[in-house]
Amino acid sequence: MADDDDGVAAKRSFWHWLQGALGSPWILALLGAAFGAYFQARNWSYQNSVAQIKADTQNVLDTGPKLTALINARYAAAVQMSKASGDGVADDASKAARQQLASARKEWDFGFTDLMSQLKFYVDAPFAVKDENRLKQAAELDCTRYTLPMLPQKLDAGHPLPAALLLGVLNHCFAEIEDNLERVKPAKNPADAKARDETIRAESLRLGHVWRVNTVLRCVVDGRALQIRGAQSRPMSLGTLFLGYDSPTSYDVPPAEADCLRDYREDAVLGEGAAARE
Fold first, then answer.
1. Total H helices, total E strands in the chain
2. DSSP letter (8 states) at residue 269
3. pTM here?
4. Contacts of 66 (CB under 8 A, 6+ apart)
5. Which of 119, 106, 173 is CA-nearest to residue 143?
């Protein structure tokens, strides 16, 4: 009985101490500060995450206009050069087309490396796309045939479209087109005219593939910008207030990204089926 009484007394003593401690202004202030610091840290983690998502979105959005400007200028110059070569235009017009082509290629050479890096780091890396030698992959392609045979048949979260590869394909095909067009000579006889016409037809086919790949690339960039921005819409909840809100290390691939490739892959003239029928 004496031991039981001692135990009861000890418990009462402990609770008496605890009640006194909790009632102390100093202890209450200390607990309040600790809880305040904890929840402030959770709020900061949420704000940091939102800031990173905004920065990631802006990085992709900033890449878009640079892509458009460089690709459109080089494409327009190649089309003009092809037209001038096919029409057998006068020297002045042909010279103007060559100058336009040289200017577009110069701008491309200045901006290409930086743009390739931006696609790798801002468009591909946040979606867990592996960093591979895209220029080497593209250099092996025949730009008169479907240019993306290396991509898997089923594109999903595990197999996203590599934006850097698409730019590498454009770079390779533009170079082929321009090199071939610059070798076109004025037709002095029927044999020369036939050779010229065959070259123009081949380059028109290559330009068709360039147009298709550019469309795929723009679709990928725009879709990923929207996907990243969508991650910003997650609200601050009670759960994130207690558990924190870590900044994203990667984003989910847009569900519709495979649709970006479908039109090119199924094109009756330029697509995968057309290449297989040859």
1. 9, 0
2. T
3. 0.77
4. 111, 115, 118
5. 173
147 backbone dihedrals φ, ψ, rounded to 5°: -95, 0
**Which residue matches tokens 């898997």?**
152
pLDDT digits (tens, 9 = 90+) for 140-164: 889 999 999 888 777 666 678 899 9
For the chain, give the mean pLDDT: 77
10 Å Cβ neighbour count for 207? 18
3-state SS assignment for residue 249: coil
CA-closest candidate to residue 270, choices 214, 220, 222, 218: 214
Cα 172 to its chain centre, rounded Å, is 19
What size, in residues, is the chain? 278
In whole angstroms, what is the distance from residue 186 CA to residue 113 CA?
35
Q: What is the DSSP letter of 82?
A: H
d(CA 62, CA 52): 15
Rounded-to-integer distance, Cα 237 and Cα 234, Å? 9
- What's the CA gap between 278 and 272, in Å, rounded? 10
What's the burial of 194, exposed, middle or buried (CB within 10 Å: 0-12/13-18/19+)? Answer: exposed
Question: Residue 170, exposed/middle/buried by CB under 10 A (0-12, 13-18, 19+)?
Answer: buried
